[in-house]
Amino acid sequence: MEISDQEILELIKTDANAGFKLLLKQYQQPVYFHIRQMLYNHDDTDDVTQNVFIKVYKNIANFKGESKLFTWIYRIATNEALNFLQQKARKNNIPYEDVAYEMSQNLEADVHYDGDEIMLKLEKAVAQLPEKQRLVFQMKYFEEMKYQDIAEITNTSVGSLKASYHHAVKKVEEFLLPD
What we know:
The protein contains 9 helices and no strands. It has about 180 residues and is mainly alpha-helical. Helix 2 runs antiparallel to helix 3, helix 2 (about 15-40) packs across helix 4 (about 70-90) and helix 4 (about 70-90) packs across helix 5 (about 95-105). About 30% of the residues are buried.
């Protein structure tokens, strides 16, 4: 049984621990998957996911309800993952634009990766996209989010997202299809 965001928020007001446990039960796995699509590594994803929920816990009282709870949490998750990628690029002294691709090259070695050869090829193709196209593609294709939700998470217009997704699909097709 899925509980509504409103019910979770109400429970947090009356019993913070029980409410937050429900929030974790509902969002921890999808947030992990969202971050995993960006970072390609289980251990890094685990760390960033923990940071996301620490931030959510510390800031839930400031949530005004102007957006959906899920888009608010995903915005935090997206920002934390992007910050992690920036730090990784600086630490490894590689251009930020290349860090996702570099991380995707280790997918086969990750014991937690269970994709087949085709999925691996798709992941590597997506990792080569520019950041905005990669984000939109991951949220639309892998997570099947609506453009409106992606727009709230990324603070971008729906029209711009549709254009980015279209360009991303074309680039992925070029990468995957033989000459």
